Amino acid sequence: MKQLRFTALAAACLIAFGAAQAQESVRPDVGKPLQAAQELIKAGKYKDALAKVRDADAVSGKNANESYLIERMRIAAASGAGDNDTAARSFEALAATGKVAPADKARMAESISGGYYRAKDYAKAMQWGQRYFKEGGTSGSMRTLLIQSQYLSGDYAGAARELTGEIQAAEKAGTPPAQDRLNLLLNAASQLKDPGATVFALERLVTYYPKKEYWVDLLSRMQRKPGFSDRLVLDTYRLSLATGSMSSASDFMEMSQLALQAGHELEAKQVVDKGFATGVLGTGAEADRHKRLRDLVMKRIDEAKAARAAAESEANAAKDGNALVSLGFSTALGGDSAKGLQMMQQGIAKGSLKRPEDAKLHLGVAQVLAGDAKAQATLRGVGGTDGTADLARLWSLYARRKG
């Protein structure tokens, strides 16, 4: 890539040299060393070519065309020789003449930026990368070089801004953002201590390149947000379990106990069963405690079965929809999605709900777990500032990936 970029720049400069010679006479004292420099550039002898350019520049009384030709040859030789500062000065001199076409200026800026990047002068590489785009450049590889230069020079805010724009453009075009771009944005956001940019990157990573670590980070950040309600701990565990990011025995135990307390005995059984199946529960110093919990769950299931008919009758007769929503959610979590969703929708329609946003969140979760296409619309409609809307958004991301 380096050679291709420089070859294109050198070719453009040499072609311009010939064209300018044809348009206006060049004195032999200037033309001969420039001709020699041209041959040396073709031979890859850039430092020698620079010396010849200096010979031409030393001639007194140069006209505008001769000075222009000297700078064209100098930028080609200096770029090849890795003399980036000299190439940069020649660029400015050429740009001031008004004779350089926009495409040529972009090509020159690209070569200079690349030269500084290879020399690890990232601040100047960034400066010339920005100049490249100012001159109308559109190269994706140059966008990468600019972003890397910004990051490596410590301009994390600039890198984050460029990366965010690129990621949003990819999504708008229906293309998954590149994983390396998302990770670089995550790193830049970490350097900036910018929670908004961090969550922006993490949400896209769990959408397009999901890993347990990303979900753990996202869920932890959500729970640490000011105002997040303890009431939603069980809901958070549900998403953690669904995404495979729950791994400790204490979490499996607590989730199962919270599910029992909420009246979701079959959900509690599913959690305990998964804990035992994966070896998280039933082993170690607390194995007996795990088994006692499993026995308790089975006892509660038997008790709930006996009281089921009466509970449904009371829920249907109630003036508000709270009991129907709760019982329907428990039914859906237990595996009977069709009946559970119907009961939840009836309860929401009945109204007078104690926590309407919780009801919509739980309906959306039940729809996700059932593979219902209406889940996304339901989750988008969840509001609240105590964590319900945040949970709905994360469930929506999970459903998108799951689907």
How would you spell out the order of helices and strands? HHHHHHHHHHHHHHHHHHHHH
Number of β-strand runs: 0
Structurally, how many domains make up the residues?
A: 2
Top CATH class of the largest domain: Mainly Alpha
> Helical segment tally?
21
Structural class: mainly alpha
Please compute the radius of gyration using only Cα atoms. Answer: 33 Å
- Per CATH, the architecture of the largest domain is Alpha Horseshoe
Question: What do the pLDDT scores average to?
Answer: 92
Which fold name corresponds to the CATH topology of the largest domain? Serine Threonine Protein Phosphatase 5, Tetratricopeptide repeat
Strand content: under 5%
CA-CA gap between termini: 39 Å
The helix fraction, in percent, is over 70%
What ranges have pLDDT less than 50 throughout 5 or more consecutive residues? Answer: 1-8, 19-23
Biggest sheet overview: none
> What's the overall geometry?
elongated
